[in-house]
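Standup notes
- HV: blocked on the assembly model, inputs below
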Amino acid sequence: DSGVTQTPKHLITATGQRVTLRCSPRSGDLSVYWYQQSLDQGLQFLIQYYNGEERAKGNILERFSAQQFPDLHSELNLSSLELGDSALYFCASSVEAGGVTEAFFGQGTRLTVV
Amino acid sequence: GQNIDQPTEMTATEGAIVQINCTYQTSGFNGLFWYQQHAGEAPTFLSYNVLDGLEEKGRFSSFLSRSKGYSYLLLKELQMKDSASYLCAAELPQAAGNKLTFGGGTRVLVKP
């Protein structure tokens, strides 16, 4: 158990809908990262938050947004869902935003858009 | 930009050794991570290299050459449970947001 909690574990929804994925980082970790992993694809970095502020942005679509709350949990919002958004969405957390630090991954949310 | 390349698949025999290579081209670089990921599960940390050289951790070792933009993960005494994807990831410096940029992963199949 990495200490990073993601909910829900599975989500099935229809095209055009909106969903929210939730992540609770390890106790004491200030950084939260979101990654998307499509079938047989590598991990694609979406966005990073550090202590409530957006720190880095990757290949995140405009239909997607995220935030980190004062208690450091984070939510990833996906709207106007398309079939191609079906993927595993991972959240990871680490202690710092700088330096070489290990990121711990949650078990992921498997999103299926039908 | 950032580019991280690793082979897509490798097959090896139980008890053997396998070396997974990773080459990277990044505009900045803190260190190089290796993660293991079983299908449908979360990636788990294996090792990281900051300085050139070999880091050994039990059956797993990782090597880094910063000047060549090259790393490898060495898996010794392969076991069936080592069948998984192995992800190479470069950590960018703080100015870029300290994000891990992953390669596409190498799927290793261990056969009896």
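- HV (later): unblocked. Residues 10 and 91 of chain A are 14 Å apart (CA to CA). Chain A has a mean pLDDT of 92.
- Next: hand off to the docking folks.
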